[in-house]
């Protein structure tokens, strides 16, 4: 079977998931070509596992000071260019399109009548699970941004739906934890705002990975340019993680057993939904903005919880290789039976205000 695997590259979480899937698909004797969109090729790093991959502009969003920047995002979206990329992508040689919420491959496959399998966190939100109510436009984007015939949604809990555990494998190596060290990954926030929050806590050390940072130390603040190996090294020995509410990093941190503090990217319903789920599952503390009071409480009082998920990548690859996509529930049930995750409890039956359970589409 020959597969075209599209990966949304706006955030690193999708790429991290693809890094886990690449060897699993190869082991399942599947021939795979990769295509990345949403970030310019020169901004991608540590891409060796994907061989001679292709890239497209695709669709993405712009941020400023920790918020979705609406007008720059609208200006950056060029519908004619996107339509051209879809039409010009020849998928005739492929038996299957696999998309991690990547729109060019998903739409090209759909228009060509190819089987499209969606694998990613966003597909979980097409189930009635706890999530931010967002707005009608946002819900339409979730459904039609990268359409798929078969949807394999990923989440930290199944919520009694055909949802799979995260694809975020971590090799837990015995490592001496440095109790005063915290990893900070807030790529959508400005370095100035991050520094302003952290400067009140000189008794702790913060390793700040940021797209605008270069490697240097300033008292207790250690600035680091993005690097997969360097990031993993700090993650292994840090006592906790402070990040936006992206799915990938949180999944890794939870499996390492790190205490977790998240700040959703403003204007991003997915990250609001992630923060809601993490708090309902009592896996992390969330803050609405870069709040030093919330940070102080988290540093002093929050206790980490560890969860463990099985080798989802290998299970999905073997499932794809069999070619029978009719039953996703059986795959989900098998994987959750191998997981160690929190009990769902009642999940706040009466969610009011900005939170609610969304019905099926």
Shape: globular
| Overall average pLDDT | 87
**Secondary-structure element sequence?**
EHEEEEHHEHEEHEEHEEEHEHEHEHHHE
Instruction: Pick out the low-confidence regions.
Output: 344-361
Largest sheet: 7 strands, mixed
Percent in strands: 15-25%
> What is the spatial order of strands in the main beta sheet?
12-13-11-10-14-15-16
Helical content (DSSP H or I, runs of 4+): 25-40%
Total helix count?
12
First-residue to last-residue Cα separation? 32 Å
Number of strands: 17
Secondary structure class reads: alpha/beta
Radius of gyration: 20 Å
Would you summarize the structure shown here?
This protein has 361 residues and is an alpha/beta fold.
Q: If you had to describe this structure to a student in words, what would you say it looks like?
A:
By secondary structure, the protein is an alpha/beta fold. It has helices at residues 12-27, 70-76, 79-88, 103-111, 136-144, 191-198, 228-237, 247-256, 269-280, 292-301, 312-322, 328-337; strands at residues 2-8, 31-37, 54-56, 63-64, 67-68, 96-100, 116-120, 130-132, 150-153, 178-185, 205-209, 216-218, 221-224, 238-244, 259-263, 285-286, 355-357. The strands form four sheets. Strands 12-13-11-10-14-15-16 form a seven-stranded mixed β-sheet, with helices on both faces. Strands 3-2-1-6-7-9 form a six-stranded parallel β-sheet, sandwiched between helices. The protein has a two-stranded antiparallel sheet with strand order 4-5. Helix 1 (12-27) packs across helix 11. The longest helix has 16 residues, at 12-27. The two termini are 32 Å apart. The model is unreliable at 344-361 (pLDDT under 50).
């Amino acid at each position: 079977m020959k597969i075209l695997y599209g990966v949304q590259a706006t955030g690193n979480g999708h790429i991290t998931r693809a890094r886990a899937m690449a060897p699993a698909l190869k082991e399942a004797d599947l021939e795979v070509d990769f295509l990345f969109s949403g970030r310019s090729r020169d901004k991608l790093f540590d891409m060796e596992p994907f061989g001679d991959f292709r890239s497209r502009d695709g669709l993405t969003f712009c941020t400023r000071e920790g918020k979705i920047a609406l007008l720059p995002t609208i200006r950056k979206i060029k519908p004619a260019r996107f339509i051209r990329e879809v039409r010009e992508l020849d998928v005739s040689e492929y038996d299957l399109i696999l998309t991690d919420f990547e729109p060019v491959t998903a739409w090209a496959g759909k228009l060509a009548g190819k089987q499209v399998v969606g694998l990613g966190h966003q597909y979980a939100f097409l189930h009635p699970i706890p999530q931010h109510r967002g707005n009608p436009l946002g819900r339409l984007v979730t459904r039609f941004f990268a359409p798929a015939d078969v949807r394999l949604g990923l989440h930290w809990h199944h919520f009694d739906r055909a949802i799979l555990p995260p694809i975020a494998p971590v090799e837990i190596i015995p490592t001496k934890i440095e109790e005063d060290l915290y990893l900070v990954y807030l790529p959508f926030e400005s370095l100035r705002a991050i520094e302003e929050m952290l400067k009140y806590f000189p008794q702790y050390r913060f390793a700040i990975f940021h797209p605008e940072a270069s490697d240097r130390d300033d008292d207790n603040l250690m600035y680091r340019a993005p690097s997969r190996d360097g990031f993993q090294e700090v993650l292994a020995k840090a006592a906790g993680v402070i990040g936006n509410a992206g799915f990938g990093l949180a999944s890794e941190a939870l499996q390492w057993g790190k205490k977790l503090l998240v700040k959703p990217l403003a204007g991003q319903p997915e990250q609001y939904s992630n923060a809601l789920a993490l708090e309902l599952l009592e896996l992390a503390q969330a803050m609405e903005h870069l709040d030093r009071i919330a940070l102080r409480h988290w540093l002093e009082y929050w206790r980490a919880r560890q969860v463990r998920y099985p080798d989802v990548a290998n299970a999905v690859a073997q499932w794809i290789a069999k070619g029978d996509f009719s039953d996703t529930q059986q795959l989900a049930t098998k994987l959750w039976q191998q997981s160690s995750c929190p009990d769902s409890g009642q999940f706040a039956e009466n969610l009011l205000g900005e939170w609610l359970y969304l019905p099926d589409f």
